[in-house]
Design goal:
102 residues; Arc Repressor Mutant, subunit A; 5 helices; 41% helix; DNA-binding
Length: 102
Amino acid sequence: MTEFSEKVFDAVIKIPCGRVTTYGQIAIICGHKGAFRAVGSTLHKNPVFGMIPCHRVVNSKGELAENYVFGGKEVQKNLLLEEGIEFSEEYVVNMRKHFWFG
DNA sequence: CTCTTGACGCACA
DNA sequence: GTGTGCGCCAAGA
């Protein structure tokens, strides 16, 4: 557990319910605005989903990263819907309304 | 210690 | 508005 990963997790955990953010935003919060790659890499190795609500983390387009899924994209979509997040597309959240800025 | 990969983002054509 | 290329940082082999 490095300082970087801690900040990443902390930032993701701080994302309020019904709100989503982007990798870039998290990277900025961590102090490494160019580390969005590392953010994804670190979160990918995230052990427990209950500890890190990674389903609230989307790419700059606001769409779900179709390559990570912990239990299925539908599961993630359902989780976001449960939080009251609206979807612009089948797997693209309306970040316009739900984007979270630390 | 060095090289490659990775849940990405932005600039340019 | 769409397609391609380059750059960023960290972790794993």
